[in-house]
Amino acid sequence: MGPGWPPQQPQQPQQPQGYPSFGPPPSYRPTPGYGPPPGYPPPPMELRPGVIPLRPLTLSDIYNGAVGFIRTNPKASLGLTAIVVIATQAIALLLQIGPMRALANTDPDSTDFGTAFVGSVWTELPGMLISALAAIVLTGMLTVVVGRAVFGNTITIGETWHRIRDRLWPLIAVTLLITLASVAVVLVVVVIIVAATAAGGGLAGVAVGIPLGLFAAAAMLWISVVTSFAPAIVVLERQPVLASITRSFALIRRDFWRVFGIWLLTRVVTYLVATAVAVPFMFAAALAGGLMGASTPAIMVAAVLASVGAVVGQIITTPFAAGVVVLLYTDRRIRAEAFDLVLRTGATADPADPRSTDHLWLTWR
């Protein structure tokens, strides 16, 4: 540098061109949150005007409905059952008083004891016949009560009798035909076993009898199941006897095992309940016989106590069993014929006129 020039200052390093200086990082705004997922519309309310929903039924629906119709109309279910069962048991007991008294006063070692015993057995037959007829009538009347309960309607005992009285003979006839079918199976098997025994001896009879006995039991069970809807069809659809049996078979054959399972379970449940109810009365009858000895009063007291136990058990189980059969029949029509669509029209009927739904049971394909 020449004289007179100021001393040169050292140059500061410059930032490279094109690279701006970085300020503080910008603040980030919170991202908008996601809202709730789009909701699905609530399921439609199932139509349930009475003791069952109008859709294909589950076992729980059927059992709840069988209990529900008893709870909603106890007079026409428990009350009606009590009247019929008590009356039939009282008649049967009165018919047995004379023979039981004669049997109690007869020496077991004498020749008259056998005659008295046979007489007591014969006097039970009228009581059994009366009980069978009463059971048929009761089943038909309870069917009417359940048919109304499906729509949430109740019915009096008098109106129930009015609805059922012109169906009594078809009910008796259909029950008799079903019974005769089972008896015919047994008779055929017995004839074959007797013929085999006569031709080949006892071993041949046993060899033929065991499989035929199993076959007869299975055949009788099958007949009972496939015809179980016939009384309900006679009453609700007002079909003739043979048409009711064939229609029952048509409804059940495509779903036999499900119907059989529910039918068998219901039989087991009702048997256990009736037995549990009757056991205390049976113990009381045995205790009375032990304390009072083999006398006429002791026999009468024991018979009355046993009858009371049977009556209470039947009053509890008979309406439930009848309700299960009718609701199972309704379920089969829903599944096989879309019968729920027909029943829905009854759900909108005038509740002031419950008879407006009776004709809906007549609709069938």
UniProtKB/TrEMBL annotation:
<feature type="compositionally biased region" description="Pro residues">
    <location>
        <begin position="1"/>
        <end position="10"/>
    </location>
</feature>
<feature type="domain" description="DUF7847">
    <location>
        <begin position="70"/>
        <end position="330"/>
    </location>
</feature>
<protein>
    <submittedName>
        <fullName>Putative transmembrane protein</fullName>
    </submittedName>
</protein>
<feature type="transmembrane region" description="Helical">
    <location>
        <begin position="171"/>
        <end position="198"/>
    </location>
</feature>
<keyword id="KW-1133">Transmembrane helix</keyword>
<keyword id="KW-0472">Membrane</keyword>
<feature type="transmembrane region" description="Helical">
    <location>
        <begin position="299"/>
        <end position="329"/>
    </location>
</feature>
<feature type="compositionally biased region" description="Pro residues">
    <location>
        <begin position="22"/>
        <end position="46"/>
    </location>
</feature>
<feature type="region of interest" description="Disordered">
    <location>
        <begin position="1"/>
        <end position="47"/>
    </location>
</feature>
<dbReference type="InterPro" id="IPR057169">
    <property type="entry name" value="DUF7847"/>
</dbReference>
<feature type="transmembrane region" description="Helical">
    <location>
        <begin position="256"/>
        <end position="287"/>
    </location>
</feature>
<keyword id="KW-0812">Transmembrane</keyword>
<feature type="transmembrane region" description="Helical">
    <location>
        <begin position="210"/>
        <end position="236"/>
    </location>
</feature>
<dbReference type="Pfam" id="PF25231">
    <property type="entry name" value="DUF7847"/>
</dbReference>
<feature type="transmembrane region" description="Helical">
    <location>
        <begin position="128"/>
        <end position="151"/>
    </location>
</feature>
<feature type="compositionally biased region" description="Low complexity">
    <location>
        <begin position="11"/>
        <end position="21"/>
    </location>
</feature>
<feature type="transmembrane region" description="Helical">
    <location>
        <begin position="78"/>
        <end position="98"/>
    </location>
</feature>
